[in-house]
Amino acid sequence: MTLRIDAHQHFWTLKRGDYGWLTPDFAPIYRDFGPTDLIPLVMRNGVDKTILVQAAPTESETHFLLGIAEVTPFVAGVVGWIDLESKDAPWRIADLARNKLLVGLRPMVQDLPDPKWLARHDLASALSAVADAGLIFDALVLPEHLSTLAAMMLRHPDLPVVVDHVAKPNLRKGVSEAFWNDMAVLAKQPQCVCKLSGLLTEARKGAGLDDLKPVFKRVHALFGSERLLWGSDWPVLTLAASYDDWFAMAQKLAGHLSLTEREAIFGGNAKRIYLSGRGRG
After folding, report:
1. Cα 250 from Cα 231, distance rounded (Å)
2. At 1, is the pLDDT very low, low, confident or very high (cuts 50, 70, 90)?
3. Residue 159 pLDDT greater than 80, yes or no
4. With a threshold of 0.90, does the pTM exceed it?
5. If you average pLDDT over every residue of the chain, what do you get?
6. For a FRET experiment, which of 36, 158, 200, 270 has its CA 20 to 30 Å from that of 191?
7. DSSP character for 12?
8. pLDDT tens figures, 186-202
């Protein structure tokens, strides 16, 4: 039986003070979240391992998360953050990557003021260093970033890219054909995979299976079962649904697929992509 892996979850401690996006407006998640909060959820749903993803644009938070991973057996790896714009970024990436629990890096592109940030050529050495270190580039992007992301991947064909949250399509207003055309361009690049996560928080309140079926159908047609990863985006998920509800819904979305395909989406792909030679398998 393939490991079942939640490829996207977070922990945070508010007193750290580096979660600029996390304000009292997000009342349900404006508190500390740690391993003891998640343990019963993963156990109840048969999830064996998780990928712990950064939520603050600081290197200190990355060290904080790596420290949690060191003492939390179910955390298989950490996707951290580093300042890719800094002149010493390649050195810092190589140094940080000596910790095998680091499996990827994620700039918070969706929060950056420059919508063309990914097109910057002065990021080239840092992005090459990410690939050279055997790390994944997690792309926290919005639909308007997809063309520059595609161009970046063409410049760095050896850099594995995971598109978080299906690039956050606007499910409340309806997903445009332009979005799917941009996603199709990404899907043509073999180093790109897509994370099936974060969808319910982009959908209308109370969204259910029928709301997400068209999205799953389109994204599966583009990436196939070998390039899709399931993730919870917990605890952000809880703004829209429970861990149990999203896991059950995702299982139903993929219910028509073969057992081999489902095992790939719910663990096998994450193991291959994030934990091949790194992390805690």
Report:
1. 9
2. low
3. yes
4. yes
5. 96
6. 200
7. B
8. 999 999 999 999 999 99
CB 108 within 8 A of CB 81: yes
Return the H-helix or E-strand segment holding 48.
none
Residue type, 140: L
Q: How far apart are CA 245 and CA 253, in angstroms?
A: 12
Pairing of strands 136-139, 161-163: parallel
**The pairing of beta strand 192-196 with beta strand 75-80:** unpaired
How many whole angstroms separate alpha carbon 208 and alpha carbon 210? Answer: 6
Q: Report the alpha-carbon distance of residue 153 to residue 40 in Å, rounded.
A: 38
Note the pLDDT tens digit of each residue in 56-92: 999 999 999 999 999 999 999 999 999 999 999 999 9
Work out the end-to-end distance of the chain between its first and last CA atoms, rounded to an integer number of angstroms.
Answer: 14
Two tokens, residue 171: 């499910």
